[in-house]
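Quick check before the chapter quiz. The format below is the same one you will see on the exam, so make sure you can read both the input and the output lines.
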Amino acid sequence: MNDPAALATALAPRPPSPLQEVRDERFARRGVRLLLKRDDLIHSSLPRDTDALGPAELFPLGNKWRKLAPNLRAAAEAGARTLLTFGGAYSNHLRATAAAGRLLGFATIGVVRGDELADRPPNPSLAQCVANGMRMHFITRTAYRRKAEPEVLSRILRAATAGEAGELHLIPEGGSNVPAVQGCAELGRELSGLAEVVAVACGTGGTLAGLAAGLAPGQRAIGVPVLKGGFLGAGIRTLQDAAFGAPTGDWSLDERFHFGGYARTTPELASFAADFEARHGLRVERVYVAKMLYALTTLTEEGAFPRGATVAAVITGQPEPGASR
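Here is the expected output.
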């Protein structure tokens, strides 16, 4: 299906994603109204011919659609046969790329951070990638950090693509590049005038970069990094420079809520997520969404938002199939 017209039909979303108000006394007692921007429902799953494909482990694209779809269209227009992208061992982006590739006729290669993982049984996230046909290539964490350097990237590509024929399309980690960031600006426009503050979890920062650019004057965005390191700010400014010509919109990062790093958790975070599920009947994705909701709840209790404010939380994805509550 990797011709542009067929791809456009297959990737058709259902925008705008729903906006759901929830009553939570932790917000209400501070006079703050909480909205959930259900971007996890914008493209809940790619359409598929189950008879032709069999019982594949499909990953609901959710918010990943906004960044992945422009890259898939570019790959189709270039005549690419193979998609290569990067991610960690629990990367939602890798799972989404593998599922999209399987359905749309692209071969997929995932370059995974951590060569020690190659000799271990795959975790459920990577197993899902493999089930959808993604070939995994593991590299050292040092090489992964240097993957933007031309010489290092060239070595990675030579090793990862051995035996692959045809045009290769490279998608950056998290799908965050200029087309993706420009696509995410629509998320901000969908929220124009509906909330004073919009919060989103951040991995590579592409969603926040676009979201902030799309918001109206007087609105601000808060990014909640799920990795520790304090490096995202510069990356987001670089993405906005490339996509819009300059840093754009009113946005900030709160670095306090990574809970030890990517895919790390604590009993406190697990308890919070389970409690939020029980209160509101929403299954909470643990790697990104739980940390963002925890951050918003803490900020509200700290008095960060004035009485009468409306805060929107972007729900970027759903728990992976089989994930524990």
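If your answer matched, good. Residues 46-57 have pLDDT under 50 and may be disordered.
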